[in-house]
User: Fold this.
Amino acid sequence: MKRIATLIDNIGLLWTMSTGSEQQDAAAFAGREAMRQVGALENAAIAVDGDGYIAAIGKTREIRAMADADTHTVDVQGAFVCPGFVDPHTHLVHGGSREKELPLRLAGAGYLDILRAGGGIMKTVHDTRASDHATLLAKASASLRRMQSFGVTAVEAKTGYGLELEAERKQLAVANSLARTLPFTFVQTALPAHAIPSARLADRDQFIEEIVHMLPVLHSEGAEFADVFVEEGVFTTAEGRYILQAAKRTGMKLKLHADEMASCGGAELAAELGAVSADHLLTASDEGLWKMAQAGVVAVCLPGTSFYLQKRPARARFMMDEAGLAVAVASDYNPGSSPSENFGLTMTLALLTLGMSPEEVFVAATRNAAAAIDRAGELGVLRAGRRADLVIFDAPSPAYVLTHYGVSHVRSVYVKGQRVYG
Ligand code: NIG
Ligand code: FE
Assistant:
């Protein structure tokens, strides 16, 4: 037994998200019954070893007995504690901002109309190409500090504002710098198939070939996943299949921006290709959602995006209750459709607009979010042997954290047993 370096003591309520079985804890919770399990423990403590891993979790009295004279004790005074949140879908690294689009949208222009007119994603492509590494790094670091203040300890970050090799590589390089210096777990996704510049519409097949050639380079520079914006007026389902099949041959895992505005068969494609996750899914068909569940694809709901774009939210209840899917939530943080790093608000919107219970929301933001980035074996669950990434709240209950909304109730955040916030 390793020495106990830190004791997180006197936890009033601990949601571990664990079933107790190591094998089960390495997978998402799928369906309504499973997604209600939070592995609750009252009057608990967590013993952390010198490497930042959990040595033991249990009742305060038993765990305290493991400490020695040199153990650093953190008395959380009856607080609520849960695993660090995992944000499995962000467009973290980008230049500029897009507040000028809101009046256009309020006057009736659609998100895709603005993109077709050269704004939207293309405006951010322009701003990202024009920003140097240091500028992008400073902006993304500030965003991460905000995310951390809401309890996020792991993030997925996509490219997709370069749309040409050098600018896509620049986005990856910024995320790689952040991963080296900041206390977050990073997972990177290559999204060069995020939009087609209008100048390339005439030779779109050639543009798609260029994307296919970018993927191995982006993979070798840190992109573990590939993603495509499959959408009416952006990439067709056939183009998405072609690009993602190439990504798979390269050894990349797959994600999709699927069935956001129009139902394009994105959910079906995610199931067919064995994607790790399909995200958005506002207009996904019943059939597509059933197929995703059969194929073990995690459904990532982005309630901040449907809220900000004023769209009918994803059918999370159908996903959990009927299709038996594993549902995760993510911020989709980006300048156009979800300009907020407030992960607490994302979780509140999951409660209010997706109709999820507090238990389901916390599962969706921890262990299921970890599964959406293929980290179910490492993140999102507090159990012996896992990293001590956890959040300590100032709140009388988990439901209070979600319902007293728009502000952070996070007292402190620990990553690998070290306090990184609060
Ligand atoms: O997930 N839908 C496509 N991509 C992003 C938005 C990107 C942007 O508007 O800059 C999304 O919502
Ligand atoms: Fe997105």
Remarks:
- The CA atoms of residues 196 and 203 lie 10 Å apart.
- The mean pLDDT is 97.
- The domain at 4-84+381-421 is CATH 2.30.40.10 (Urease, subunit C; domain 1).
